[in-house]
Amino acid sequence: MALSCSFPPGPDTVEHVALAESLGYERAWLYDSPALYFDVWATLARVADRCDSIGLGTSVIVPRLRHIAVTASAVAQIAHLAPGRFTLGVGAGFTGARTLGEKPMRWDRIVDFTEALRALWRGEAVEWEGKVIELMYDREHLPVLPFEVPIWFGAEGPKGLDAARRAADGVLSIRLGPSGFDQVGRIITGTVLDEGESADADRVWAAAGHAAATRYHLAYEMGVDMSGLPNAEEWRASIEALPEAERHLVLHSGHVTSVSAHDTAFVPREAVAALTFTGTVETLRERAARMAAKGVTELIYQPAGPDIPRELEAFARLREEVAA
Fold first, then answer.
1. What are the backbone angles phi and psi of residue 283, rounded to the nearest 5°?
2. Residue 7: helix, strand or coil by DSSP?
3. pLDDT exceeds 70 at position 113
């Protein structure tokens, strides 16, 4: 099982990916939520120029955020800068759409989007939204067509997984690995504990409190039972007391980067140990092995908190343990 990493694009992401490359991480996936983070394509281009060997990917773009030709051209540039190293992750839309007050896309539309993208990369004309479009590159000026890149779907439920089986090369998941896929990336968040360190310590909360809070965000937005989450009723009541038109702004504040003021008030610290990938190297190695046994082929760790290098270096030790 490969060990990769993921990042919400920001001012230091290029340096963080360069460090991950030096530590032996397989791939760096970058998030695409324009209301929360820097632009994913600009950041990927900077990373591709800086790093020579680490794989790159999006986790995940939401098709409705950009015209298909814009996405097709952006992928062409990254594939040119990092030949053979780029994977396009596509999803229906969680924070990328929800932070804008939008609902997720229909999966059949995402399949159509994927098929049209591949045709554009082959240099073909396609009909999209009632218009015939094509990447009309001057082959002397931009001799990049045709090309291919793998496409993975960020899918969790049965409809998304069915779409992935029809149209994707792999799956990105925040749950245990779905069956029936050769390539499954499991995104995890948390922190490696130092020897003797408590899971409710200040450093742990700064590095992994966001991961516990995200479980509340996901459960609420997906409409699933929240009764297993500590203090869930109070958390939900506080969110639902907000004006509906602005609720998403509070709900996703600090998503996967920090714990918002709202979540600090309602998410208890003990949720970190219960809900995140947090523990000693030994315990996390055992958890990683169980994930591999369930079909996960790539464990994707997203570091957070004030010391990202520390988090990446700690998980690199996990990689050494898994390899051993």
1. -70, -35
2. strand
3. yes
End-to-end C-alpha distance for the chain, whole angstroms: 12
Give per-residue pLDDT as tens, 205-247.
999 999 999 999 989 988 889 999 999 999 999 999 999 999 9
Q: Are 206 and 305 in contact (CB under 8 A)?
A: yes
Tokens of 216: 């509340």
**Architecture of domain 2-192+282-323 in CATH?**
Alpha-Beta Barrel (3.20)
Find the helix or strand (DSSP H, E) in which 204 lies.
Answer: helix 202-222
CB neighbour class for 245 (10 Å; exposed up to 12, middle 13-18, buried from 19): exposed
Mean pLDDT of 170-195: 89
Average of per-residue pLDDT values in the chain: 93
**CATH 3.20.20.30 domain span(s) along the chain:** 2-192+282-323
Sign of CA pseudo-dihedral 16, 98, 300, 68? negative
CA distance 303 to 7: 7
The answer to whether residues 250 and 256 touch, using CB atoms and an 8 Å cutoff, is: no
**What is the band of 321 on the pLDDT scale with cuts at 50, 70, 90?**
low
- Which residues are paired to 172 by β-bridges? 154, 185
How far, in Å, CA of 94 to CA of 62, rounded? 9
The whole-angstrom separation of Cα 167 and Cα 270 is 40
How far CA 140 is from CA of 134, 136, 251, 276, 280, in Å, comes to 17, 12, 49, 51, 55
Q: Are 180 and 155 in contact (CB under 8 A)?
A: no
